[in-house]
Design a protein that fits this description.
heterodimer; A: mainly alpha; MetI-like fold; 2 domains; about 80% helix; B: mainly alpha; 12 helices; globular
Amino acid sequence: MNASLLFQQYGNSLIYALGTAMLSTLVAVPTGYAMARWKSVWMKVLFWCCVVLLFLPFQVTMLPEYVLLDFLHLLDTRWAILIPGMVSPLPILILWMGNRQVPMEFEDAFCLESSSLFSYFRFILLPNLRGVIAAAFSICFLLNWNLVDPALIFLEDKRLWPLSLTLLEQEGATQLYYGVLDMIPVVLLLGMVMFVMYKKNSRSKSLSSSHFLHKKGNLC
Amino acid sequence: MRGKLTFRQQMKLTALPGMLGVGFLYLLPGCALFYYAVINNVFQKQFVGPGNLLDILSNSYFLLALKNTAILLSAALAMVLLLAVLLVLPNAFFGWRMEGVAIVLLIPLFMPSVLSVELLQNVGGDLPSRLQLLLLFVWRNVGAILLLLSVGLARMEKDMLEAARLDGANRWQLFVYMQFPMLTLYIGVGAVFLVMQFFGIFREAYLLFETSFPPDEVYLLQHYMHNHFLRLNYPYLAAAAILFTAFLVVVIWVVRVLRNCSKITCEKCAG
């Protein structure tokens, strides 16, 4: 396989993983908020739809997705991966859980000052949910980086394949070389997660020690 | 204020992306399943009613796939959860947090499936196919469950454990009577994650046996549906997908009812 095709497929992997992670997180942020705050039958239906969809294997949703993509003439295009991945039940449920942890008092206090939901999202909710959003994004990215089944069904053109599917056709040293290339973003992302965890731990340790010194000072 | 949406109205609008997405991407195209499930084939399109459902329920390959899925799912769940509980014991007994170990064990979950399959074939290529698939599943998922259980242990109230220790409980008693019962919630979440992962195991099975027609002992429902899709046998695929979804909905509903019952019992006990 020539180098240009390899880089094209590497780019495809990045487009699919980053694209689906970004789109699904963008959809999940407002939906998770609505599911946590709006007590209605619609939200219950949406919640249970997400729970059932979470467990369904791709082979069950494959035919409906195929019919839809065929109807929209999107088969064998990058949108065939991005559009079904846009609404993913996992980030919606993660954001729903995250939103349930945000105290209602924040919203009540904000409503006394303003009635703009956009401002509430910008100044209160999103800063509080930063970690949850990052977790949802990372999980989506990592799960979509290793894409095989949808690409096998919806994409025939090899120039549109992700690297994970191309790896199948390689053998020996070439496969190992491609595998190592494929691992780079995963290692980078996991490294970032470890770094953030380490920084958080060291910050909480320094905070607790300063708190201890403060208390000690008060006692003195 | 006329013409301006209230906060509550704006809040309701935030549900739109999710509702439209689920509706247009899953529910509406999902109706196609009901159409395909009641026609004889994609060319003649004659109405056959529940004929396809009855056909697949008496089909030997569907029954084999169902049996294998049930066996492998229960074995995979038991193996991963048991191993994760064993690996979390040093943390529970001696307080070794081993976050690094959990992160390293997490790497197989996100490494290319092809590479993990190659590694397994190099190490245990002669093993029976069912064991190969199970080992691959355990290797890829144990890290995530270990991380989850470690988080569960870290979140436990230390004062309560300290009080029990002062009352004379040894490490084993602390684990069996206090830490393990408190970890059951995390084990439940882990089981949910594993079920989700198991239904995505087609990818690994496809790579491991390099075909969607694997040996009989690892022929899963996912293979059954995939192969019918490739043969353009949409009616059987649709019927199998409807059966699968209906079974899943019933299981989720039963779990929910049982959970509610146990909650009511607990409240009565507390009352």
